[in-house]
Design goal:
The protein is mainly β. The protein has 2 helices and 7 strands, in the order E-E-E-H-E-E-E-H-E.
C-alpha cells in the first residue's frame, strides 16, 4: 500500500486540468473533465469556480465544500 501523499501546490488551467505538486516532489496532471457528470464535481464545469482551487489539509478543495481525495488525484493522474 502506498503512503498517502499530500499535495503541496496546485494550479488550474482553462482546459480543466490540475497541475499538482506532491510532497514527494512528483509533478502530475489530473484532468477533471471526466468527473463533471458526477456530484459534487458538476459545479466545477464553471471555469470561474474551477479556478478557485486551493490546497487544504493536503488535498485540493473548492468553495461549497467540494474536494477530491489525494489518493484519487495521485492514482488517476499522469506524470507531468
Amino acid at each position: 500500500m502506498q503512503k498517502l501523499l499530500d499535495i503541496v501546490n496546485v494550479q488550474t488551467q482553462t482546459d480543466y486540468v490540475l497541475p499538482l505538486h506532491f510532497e514527494n516532489g512528483e509533478h502530475r496532471k489530473f484532468d477533471m473533465k471526466p468527473y463533471f457528470h458526477q456530484k459534487p464535481w458538476t459545479a466545477l464545469n464553471n471555469i470561474k469556480l474551477f479556478k478557485q482551487a486551493k490546497i487544504e489539509n493536503g488535498t485540493v478543495v473548492w468553495p461549497g465544500e467540494i474536494d477530491i481525495d489525494p489518493e484519487a488525484l495521485y492514482e488517476r493522474s499522469e506524470p507531468a
